Please model this.
Amino acid sequence: MLTFILKRLGLAVLVAFTVSFISFSLLFLSGDPAAALAGETASGEDVETLRRLYGFDRPMLVQYGDWLFSALQGDFGESYYFKLPVASLIAERLQVTMILGVCGILFALITAVPLGVVAAIRPNSMIDRIALFLSVAGQAMPSFWFGLILIVIFAIQLGMLPPSGADSWRHFIMPTIVLGYYAMPAIMRLTRAGMLDVLNSDYIRTARAKGAGESRVLFKHALRNAIIPVVSLAAVQMGFMLGGSIVVESVFALHGAGYLAWESIARNDLPTVQALILVFSMFYIVFTFLADVLNAWLDPRMRSA
Amino acid sequence: MTDTTDPLSREIQGPSPRQMLKARALSHKGLVFGMVVVGLLVLVAIFAPLLAPHDPYAQSLMKRMVPPVFMGGTWEHPLGTDHLGRDYLSRLIYGARVSLLIGAVAALISGVIGTAMGVAAGYFGGKVDAVVTFLINVRLAMPVVLVALAVVAILGGSLTVVICVLGLLLWDRFAVVMRASTLQISRRDYIAAAQVIGASTPRIVLTEIMPNVFNNLIVIVTLEMAHAILLEAALSFLGLGVQPPIPSWGLMVSEGKNMMLFEPWLVLIPGAVLFALVLAINLMGDGLRDVTAPEGRS
Model:
């Protein structure tokens, strides 16, 4: 188990460093970051001043090393636009995104797992078909459009919920549904497939044969085993969702980290963009690492991987 | 099969695998529905200049925000006009070109990259496999929307840039699936036999492996095409994808957003078409998987 954790940790760290290098090199994609920063109207002299001020005249690898060293200490530089330290800017905005992400994954689990279980107990029934339809439709639904439709119905027509902002818990209802709906299909499919698999296994037959009640068989014996892969999928989906919250946050004008990403990309605020890419990647890396460790702990067969 | 004079032999032979595949395909409702809708939209995209009643770029200040026919408009503009007086139906029709082009080319680019990586990893194993698996991990850790937005913003939003960015970002599923299927096939005896008779690696990959992973590949192509179309729409919606005045469905939703309060159809129509296209492509992909590999059904 320890070797597995160490190996997996080594991989996570290596991935994190590679991601950090890629997000850093985005800065150089435009060719000359100093010219891009100065704008089209700047004189050659201004560009040179900026180049020296921000240290763009040094070799790229030196700049990367410098950036990484500061980043490891929690210093991501200063935002070009907000003129504030990037780290505190992100920390401040991350709260909203985290609330949204946790609510979203909980919503997805609360709706998708029961649906998947019922669909597996009664394959090809009405509920199974509805679950299948929801998961197929969910994968095809553009999240920004879904969000706008909810706004039209619940905020404009019915006036039940506020259309935008993050002042109270009611502001989070629609964003939670939109973000959670995105993770639902995968969780539901995996729950259904896992339950079907388990329900056909020998030990379930044995449990039934020895006279265990149906609900005891379903929840104590079957679901506990079928849910293992779902837990790790949920962790992975959570990582994806935080990265995908940028669309939802801009639809509902929730001023979280995703909204910050959108603002800073539109304003060419590269230090913030670089840091945000790294932060969102780190969430994914940490979540998948925890999911793999949890899996290995629950199922020793996974430890060999 | 060509011998129709002997009824006995025809009876014994039964349907060929190809005929059985066709029968399975035609009895699969999702696949048929998906193919019909995708086929129709492809035709619409190809014949856009013939089908569109107006020039999708022609503005008219006199005819701004004309409502669609079912909301009290006229047949002059069946789906009404937008805030610049451009015919909505024509923009919708030309928008099919943008979505399908971006989806197809991005899926093609990512398909080539991902398949090359996946097949190499599965066939050679060892260090090659380790490197490819690592690259897949790195790619999955990068937030797609964020990176795509940032790159498009830096390089400037054009059709070519959006296609290339999506093509370079969406290869992960190709690599994962192709790696797994190649790994499975490489252990078969006929691969060993080909190696023993001295067939070159390119020959083995092209004539022994590729035909056997082709079905899986087609399924991923369709699913990733749908993924690319959704991402393009999201990027354009956020204002950092395809730039105006090009009629992209995502952009149309974004432009209609400000008038959503009074004219919700400006948002509803392009979004519904986008949803229908992506749904149809997904149904087609799922259907192809069911039909070509019945054993892999869940």
